[in-house]
Amino acid sequence: MKSKSTTLKIIVFIVLVMLTCAYILPIYVMINNSLKTLPEITQRTYLAFPALPQIQNYTDALFGSRNFLIPMLRPIINSTIITVAVTALAAFFGSLGGYYLSRAKSTFTRVIFILVGIALYLPYQAVIIPLTTITAKFGLINSHLGLILCYLIINLPLASVLMGTFFLGIPRELEEAAEVDGASRVQTFFLIVSPISLPAYASVSIIIFTQVWNEFFIALTLVTPKTQTVQVAMAMTQGSTISPYNLQMAASLLTVSVPLVFFLLLGRYFIRGLLAGALKG
Q: pLDDT 10s per residue in the chain (281 long)?
């Protein structure tokens, strides 16, 4: 039995090492080649270290240069504004909706829950025309507020379901004790339920933030040069110059830096929130 356990541990260790290498290799190639010169890139020795690291590549990618005509600074600012706003609003309104779905037991609630579940699986291609119409009617077309409204409508069902799943695991006795002490339903939610649900808020925020930051189809359809996001800008870098892969790699690293920092700030709550939602749901 002990021999089998040792063999199993070795197999698991080897698999973990292989998976780690598979995940780290693209990141290594991206960082390594972002520091090379264009002649070094053309040699296609992607795993070799640069002769002299070119920090200037990041400045060129951020502010633009003769070899890189799409400066990434403005798209990064646009994406940060849109993504942070959508994440905050989706976490707030999603928690309210999720709390209602997890506590109300009427037929109306079941119908709403089914509709929310259906909304999770709607492809973006099916809602792009209604979203465009709504933003146009409100006078928000081609603006940051218009994109924020579109992404909020798309991601609110997911936030409600995830938060509602977590709220199902919170003991009702806590809320009943608060009500006995004279707390209203609103006070119970904000003073009792929300503070102990911070892992769920963190998990939902990371998921929504990543989805909105990486979204391409709606951004490509609705953005203007003034509201251009990082994904659209990265797509435009291809063919704008003579394929400066070193600058494109530097731009790619800059675009992933914001969600990476966000994940590092809230990452310690992420797994805890997912596990709590999965086990209690």
A: 555 688 888 999 999 999 999 989 988 998 999 999 888 888 878 888 888 889 899 999 999 888 788 899 999 999 999 999 999 999 999 999 999 888 888 888 888 888 887 888 888 888 888 888 888 888 888 889 999 999 999 999 999 988 988 888 888 888 888 888 888 888 999 998 998 888 889 889 999 999 999 999 888 888 888 889 999 998 888 765 567 888 889 999 999 989 988 888 887 777 666 666 544 54
Report d(CA 193, CA 196) in Å as an integer.
6
Residue 217 has a CB neighbour count (10 Å cut-off) of 12
Q: At CA 236, angle to CA 230 and CA 239, rounded to 5?
A: 145
> Six-digit token pair at 245?
């892969």
Distance, CA of 96 to CA of 189 (rounded, Å)? 9
Single-letter amino acid code for the residue at 192: I
Q: Return the number of other C-beta atoms located less than 10 Å from residue 118's C-beta.
A: 10
Report CA-CA distances (Å) from 132 to 81, 208, 233: 20, 21, 21
Q: Give the whole-angstrom CA distance, residue 234 versus residue 221.
A: 15
E strand intervals along 3-120: none
Give pTM, 2 decimals.
0.84
Joined together, the tokens standing for residue 135 give 């933003």
Q: Residue 198 corresponds to which tokens in the numbers above?
A: 């911070």
Closest by Cα among 151, 163, 158, 139 to 83: 151
Q: How far is CA 101 from the centre of its chain?
A: 24
d(Cα 168, Cα 172) in Å, to the nearest integer? 9
